[in-house]
Write a structure and sequence with these properties.
Helix content: 40-55%
Radius of gyration: 22 Å
Largest sheet: 7 strands, mixed
CATH class of the largest domain: Alpha Beta
Number of helices: 14
Number of domains: 2
Oligomer: single chain
Shape: globular
CATH superfamily of the largest domain: Type I PLP-dependent aspartate aminotransferase-like (Major domain)
Order of helices and strands: HEHHEHEHEHEHEHEEHHHHEEHEEEH
Distance between the termini: 48 Å
Bound molecules: pyridoxal-5'-phosphate
Amino acid sequence: MDSIQKYILQKIAERKREGNFRSLKLIEGKVDLTSNDYLGIARDKDFQVMVDAEIQRNQKLLGSTGSRLLSGNSAYAEALEKQIATFHSSEAALIFNSGFDANYGLLSTLPYKGDTIIYDELVHASIHDGIKASRADRVSFRHNDVADLKAKLATAKGLIYVVTETLFSMDGDTPPLREIADLCMDFGAGLIVDEAHATGVIGEKGAGLVNHLGLESHCLARIHTFSKALGAHGAVVLCSAELRDFLINYCRPFIFSTALPFHSLAAVSCVYQYFPKLDDRRRQLAHLISVFKTSISNDPNLHILPSDSPIQSVIIKGNEDIKRVAALLQDAGFDARPILSPTVAKGTERIRIGLHSFNTEEEIVRLADAIHIFVQAKLQSV
Ligand SMILES: Cc1ncc(COP(=O)(O)O)c(C=O)c1O
């Protein structure tokens, strides 16, 4: 026990030394520039009333009481999967307990020994971990670089899987999806796309980038999370009926975990009736994104990653400096968090700003001013 305790203390000290020690924080009463609640659904009182009524009407048990393969299945869950599949123009859908589970489950289960997974270098941790847990060979391609993807496809062995996101969670940009889909067709590769941050935000009715570009038939699987703009919890894999059967039979995070409880399913069912109608909020969000970009763009000393999405990243190198900016922003009343290395590559430490339809223009202009002031002060101090 003593040596285990010593190891734990050493690892904690390592994090503190490197300036990237994480701790849980309670932050209230500040302007939200951190959450993924892009459309304000998680805090929407009308929506909460709708979910409460749905729960009152249908709930039989508090917990789901088992895995979907045992007592945790329900007619409600199956109907919900059909509703979501239809909405996203997919043949079938399978609900997972989280986006992490869906990515990890799919990628650790489907690609096998002798196969190759080619993935964008900036994909989410859940995709990385799923890929690592599979027995397939793996190789990354440079972020959004179609030529590099093509070179990797040309040397890939076995069944080939290509994995990317449709709205990157840290950089806020979108991939050249049509070109990637065409390449996958040419090489007979299966395209898997994570639509976590695009869901609710991109495309007509917020159905995601794949729907927006009409690429449904080009995708082997799509992962939509309910946890970002949809303000709920859980995720779905959209795929063929056969792949759904395959996952039900082989995917360990699906098989060996208790299914989502009824109140989570009710929230998801309600949100799929709700978010497609929120065009006014999507328009307001687009307006606020352009206000932010205009307010911040007139400072040549600032490095802002190119993004037209609610995720805007201001790069300020070094864990210590980025923590200092975040502290200043907190003092000015903003909940904006620093993203440290190694979560992002060294030298690309950043303030990741999540914009929301409920933020105000005044808040956004004030935020841009606060960032300018920090950068000016830093320039004067060197
Ligand atoms: C791109 C991406 N995929 C998957 C996930 C995991 O989703 P969830 O939070 O529902 O587990 C996240 C969450 O941060 C994400 O950013």
